[in-house]
Structure formats: structure tokens, C-alpha cells
From TrEMBL:
<dbReference type="InterPro" id="IPR036890">
    <property type="entry name" value="HATPase_C_sf"/>
</dbReference>
<dbReference type="InterPro" id="IPR058210">
    <property type="entry name" value="SACS/Nov_dom"/>
</dbReference>
<protein>
    <recommendedName>
        <fullName>Sacsin/Nov domain-containing protein</fullName>
    </recommendedName>
</protein>
<feature type="domain" description="Sacsin/Nov">
    <location>
        <begin position="12"/>
        <end position="249"/>
    </location>
</feature>
<dbReference type="InterPro" id="IPR052972">
    <property type="entry name" value="Sacsin_chaperone_reg"/>
</dbReference>
<dbReference type="Pfam" id="PF25794">
    <property type="entry name" value="SACS"/>
</dbReference>
Length: 292
């Protein structure tokens, strides 16, 4: 016999929701622009994109199913750090905590999810934490639909040697997954054919060549991207080839005439945007942007 009152209600299937977001969300450089915009909102000053061609060892990872995500990836670094609010915000789709904060560009709480065009398992290191998302709930160990990801404080709970390979791809841009990281490093392992076959988010395969093409498109638009930012002064695009110790620069764009006066003007905008409307003072200034 059934109980009088059963648990029942409307639920959202996460991968279906992400699929829906991707349908309404263009592929291409907008994916990169969403990352830049979030970094700008986090008051970062520099963003670096890096195409990592490496395939890292995969024996000491969280689960056998995670081995498939040690291959080529898009990395995105910025020098902002996630606040508690940011961690909360990124885990709640469509409920941006920025809406009530003036001066933030983000509004809808979906932009980050454009990244699911190219990966099924996005992850990032920020401050003391490593976060891994697994919307399918089938790659990470002991995972549930209620919490489809993992977050570890690696300063308080040192990553075990048994997870050495899991941490290997993040040893870049000053990150060591052991001590506090004064920045944020995203890693988006590119969706392979095998992963696309098993994905209910997207059937799109991404290769290092497709990211390279994306970088070429960004090169055409990067000045315009930089023009509309508040805090970011420089965007660098790099690649890390197998066997290389350091990533090599492909191109970069930065505010070239970053004199104190210009920076103050920019800071003024940043400040003004977060001040009450009647205090807003708009200045005029010229930005020289150089692509190297
Ligand atoms: N680089 C970052 N540094 C700090 N927090 C970040 C960063 N990237 C994302 N976040 C957090 O993740 C949240 C989700 O980002 P997302 O882009 O999906 O939403 P949003 O920026 O609030 O709104 P929108 O959909 O309009 O972009 C952000 O609100 C922010 O709190
Ligand atoms: Mg955003």
C-alpha cells in the first residue's frame, strides 16, 4: 500500500536544462567573452586563455571514469578570486547573485554555462578550492543529482598522492593546488568523440584545432572586447605544447597607454558604476590598445 503522502514535485533535469541553454546560446567567441566578462565582474585585471595540448597521466585520479578527461583542454586564468557568493552563484543556474549588485555586467546567471558547448566536465581552482562539475552524474565518484559536482579545500585537506594525476593539469600560472591561489584557473577538457556519444548535453566534438580556430576569431575581435570592460587591462592567448615547460604566447591585447591618469579614469568608471546614480561622474578618455 502507498504511504498517504509521498515525496513528489517538479524537478529540472540538469543536462536537459544545459542543452536548452546551449540551443539559445551561440557557439564561437561568445563562449570566451562570457569568461572574460565574469573575470571583469570579479574585478580581475588580466585574463589568459591557454590551449593545453597535453594528455596527462590518468592513473591517480578520482575515479576510472575521470581518466578520459586528462586530455587536451582549454584553460582560462584570471587574477580574481571566487568569493563565497561567487561559489553559490555558479552552482545556481539562472539565479545570479549579481542582479542586486550595481556595477556588475552579469544579470542572468547562465553565461558561464556556454562552456558546456565544449566540455562535459568543467573545473576550476580558485583561492583554496578545487571544484569539478559533472552534470551527468556519471564521471565523479559518489555523486548525486542533488549535488552534481565536487569541491575540495586543498589547503585544509591536502590532496592525497593517490590524486596526484587529478591535480597535474592545474600546475600552471602560479597554481600548485596545495597553497592558497590568488587567482582562478578554469580547465575545460575538450569533448572527445567518445564523450559526445555518451553526452546528453551536446554531441559537439571539440579538438585543439577547433580551439585554435576560436583563438583566430578572438584575435579579430579582441580590441572591441577589451574596450567594453571595466577592470580587465590585458587579454593573453597562449598555447602549451607537449614537452614544453611554459606556455607560449600566441597574441595579447592590452591597454597600452595605461598611465596613472587613464587607470584612475577607468577605476572611476568602475567605482561610478557601483555608486548611486546621482553620484555617477562620466569622464572621457582614450584607450590605446595594442595587439602583439
Ligand atoms: N572568474 C570568476 N571569478 C569569480 N566568480 C566567477 C567567475 N566566473 C564566474 N563566477 C561566478 O559564477 C557566477 C555565474 O556566472 P554566469 O556568467 O553564469 O552568471 P552571471 O555573470 O551572474 O550572469 P550572466 O548570465 O548575465 O553572465 C557569477 O555570477 C559569479 O558569481
Ligand atoms: Mg556572466
Amino acid at each position: 500500500m502507498e504511504h498517504a503522502w509521498q515525496d513528489f514535485g517538479q524537478k529540472v533535469d540538469l543536462t536537459a536544462r544545459l542543452r536548452e541553454i546551449l540551443i539559445n546560446y551561440p557557439e564561437g567567441t561568445s563562449i570566451l567573452k562570457e569568461i572574460v566578462q565574469n573575470a571583469d565582474d570579479a574585478k580581475a585585471t588580466i585574463v589568459k586563455f591557454c590551449l593545453d595540448y597535453n594528455t596527462y597521466p590518468a592513473d591517480a585520479v578520482l575515479s576510472p571514469a575521470m581518466r578520459a578527461f586528462q586530455g587536451p583542454a582549454l584553460l582560462a586564468f584570471n587574477d580574481g578570486v571566487f568569493s563565497e557568493k561567487d561559489f553559490e552563484s555558479i552552482s545556481r543556474i539562472g539565479d545570479s547573485k549579481k542582479r542586486e549588485q550595481l556595477g556588475k555586467t552579469g544579470r542572468f546567471g547562465v553565461g558561464f554555462n556556454a562552456i558546456y558547448h565544449l566540455t562535459d566536465v568543467p573545473s576550476f581552482v580558485s583561492g583554496e578550492h578545487l571544484v569539478i562539475f559533472d552534470p551527468h552524474c556519471k564521471h565523479l565518484p559518489a555523486i548525486s543529482a542533488a549535488n552534481p559536482g565536487k569541491k575540495i579545500n586543498f589547503v585544509q585537506h591536502a590532496l592525497q598522492p593517490s590524486l596526484a594525476h587529478q591535480a597535474a593539469p592545474y600546475q600552471l600560472f602560479g597554481c600548485n593546488t596545495a597553497s592558497y591561489y590568488p587567482g582562478t584557473l578554469f580547465r575545460f577538457p575538450l569533448r572527445t568523440q567518445a564523450q559526445a556519444d555518451g553526452s546528453t548535453i551536446s554531441k559537439q566534438v571539440y579538438t585543439p584545432e577547433s580551439i585554435s580556430a576560436l583563438f583566430d576569431d578572438l584575435r579579430q575581435e579582441v580590441q572591441l572586447v577589451l574596450l567594453f570592460l571595466k577592470s580587465i587591462r590585458s587579454i593573453e592567448v597562449l598555447q602549451l605544447l607537449p614537452g614544453q615547460a611554459q606556455p607560449q604566447l600566441l597574441f595579447s591585447c592590452s591597454v597600452a597607454n595605461a598611465t596613472e591618469a587613464v587607470l584612475q579614469q577607468r577605476a572611476l568608471f568602475l567605482h561610478a558604476a557601483s555608486a548611486p546614480a546621482d553620484e555617477v561622474v562620466a569622464g572621457t578618455y582614450r584607450l590605446d590598445m595594442a595587439i602583439r
